[in-house]
Amino acid sequence: MKKLFLILAAVGVMSFSAVNVYAQEATAAATEQTTDEAVVADEAVVTEEVEMNVETDVEGTPMHQAIKQKFLEGGAGWMTPVLLCLIFGLAIAIERILYLNLASINTKKFMAQIEAALQKGGVNAALEVARNQRGPVASIYYQGLSRYGEGLDVVEKSVASYGSVQMGLMEKGLSWISLFIALSPMLGFMGTVVGMIVAFDAIQAAGDVSATLVAGGIKVALLTTMAGLIAAVVLQLFYNYIVAKIDTLVINMEDSSIILVDMLTEYSKKN
Predict the structure, then answer these.
(1) Residues 137, 104: contact at Cβ < 8 Å?
(2) pTM, two decimal places
(3) CA dihedral over 79, 82, 86, 91, signed as positive or negative
(4) Structural domain boundaries of the chain?
(5) How would DSSP label each residue in 120-136?
(6) Burial of residue 123 (number of CB atoms within 10 Å: 0-12, 13-18, 19+)
């Protein structure tokens, strides 16, 4: 009986111990799994934060701040003149573009109105139409019609002379844009030369060639050159557009002048 009791007690103790060990192992395994998951999660968060920081450093910098930084790195003493050339050149170019766009009219419609006014009300009616219209073509027509009483030869000379005046008004300011186009890269190259001189002075003072010594001077050289070329390219695009616009207006003026003389010739024959 005692042996049976001892056997049952031993079996119970062993069973309890086994259950306890199994529970401890399960708990340890669960704890280890939880710890591993937490470590993986922390690593993922850290990786994501690093990637976000990298993206912010690479892509998060606004354009104007990047340009400002490069401007300061290039040196205000050499970048400022290039910037002023770009600003003044753009100001003149925009003013010319607005002027030429306002000077552009529907030439065919205007000439039709002049012809209709001549047939209905004569030269005075045509003068009134030309006076109320803007642009160089209307100005030429007004000058030609106002000289009609002096003869067709005088009308032709007046139209030709005033056409030259209108061309001069349209080309006003182009010489300044050309100056800024030529001056911008020159200033950039001057900054390049100065930057290289600074780099060689640093090498001479140190007595050794080191990347850290020459990096600053070379950076100034490259940035000033790039700024000058960018300013020249931008202004050149505006300049070519303005020249093309002026050429179109000049062709319209010449064609309109010929048509005006023809209209006045027909009108004089009928009257």
Answers:
(1) no
(2) 0.68
(3) positive
(4) 80-270
(5) HHHHHHHHHHHHT--SH
(6) middle
